[in-house]
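From the pipeline queue, job 12 of 40. The input is one protein chain; the requested action is below.

Action: predict structure.
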Amino acid sequence: MMVGEKMEKYWHSVILDNDYCNGCTNCLSRCPTQAIRVIDGKAKIMKERCIDCGECLKICHFHAKGTLSDGLEAIHQFKYKVAIPGISIYGQFPAEYDIEDVFQGIYKLGFDLVYDTAYAADVLTKFQNQLLKEPFIEKPIISTYCPAITRLIQIRYPSLIDNITRLESPMEVAARLVKKQLMEEKGLSFDEIGVFYISQCPATITSIKQPLGLEKSFIDGGISLESIYSKLLKIIVKGERLYPTVQKASGNGVGWGMVGGQSFGLDTEKYLAVDGIEEVIRVLDKMELGKLPEIDFFEGYACVTGCSGGVLNVENPFMAKARIRIKSAELPKYNPNLIDETIKREDLEWDVEMEPRSILKLDSDFKVALSKMSKLEELAQKLPGIDCGACGAPTCRALAEDIVMNRAAITDCLVLGKFNRRRQKKSKTEV
């Protein structure tokens, strides 16, 4: 459970179940931040490196990886209960169900209000266009929509932190807007309103518990879509309208549920939309070197197809993307003049600055760190460099780091041991 949990230094939604792990090493090479080691035949996640992208969940055939999230019972801790479904929900149900049918079904799960997160995306589009016109803004502007990519930048590309927009993601914006609305209209206190995000991925759940750019999230919990999907499907009634209408976003806002969606509403063609963590890394490598001067806006997603490919969704990512695209085309076009004028940009921005998070801090003492780095480089040269993963580390260089940090020994390298034994045998034969 998430609500009421004691905060840890590094809290992660992605978890391991050692009972299911067979030490196969499939997850080692898939992790973009080298956060996984296999020790004594079991995978282990290094919390300081993990960005909760969910790549290990996708690759693990033994279901040893899982996700921490809230159950529906958590909503009853609050006087007034609000659901803000992830925008990718627009692509998760068969075409026979209108999205409003789905939203009406969510009410029946016990919520007092369901809020269309895609409308918050429309609000953000207005302010992103304002930022693009500012002459001194760092470009390309990097979207915060995918929290896994934001954390990736914090860890691997700290020089790009200034390029990240200070505007929050649609789910945080939706939570701020709906809490303000309910406090004004119903006289509720902030703490009486429980806002729960129906999530498509573990990274969004982690960003609720430990947000970036915020002292505290306005969201009170995260519920995975897959955990409620079957129940929701059973209670949806086509055409039934027992509760207030939810859907109010434009086609642009709904489009945010797939890769490229948020860029379509921008007043520029100088944007780049990339999906898949490996491709995003390739682009960020170039961006860090200043090789993308023609790009003004960048949206990157850890998941292929964007949020429609989130690991906590249920539908095939490409089918879900097609549904979102079709639905987006059917809805009215984005009109910034329809956005509530009382919403101010400064109310939707970070309230704390993001600090780089080093994952290669060898020692707090600079001289000791230099000595360890020298030893690391020496070890990296000695190791075979084939990155086989047999040692339990994803690469030979990662093993060298582990050795320096006393997490491993050079004898863990099976290939080097085999090579040394052959060399010793050859030497004895020559003698």
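Job complete. The domain at 14-67 is CATH 3.30.70.20 (Alpha-Beta Plaits).
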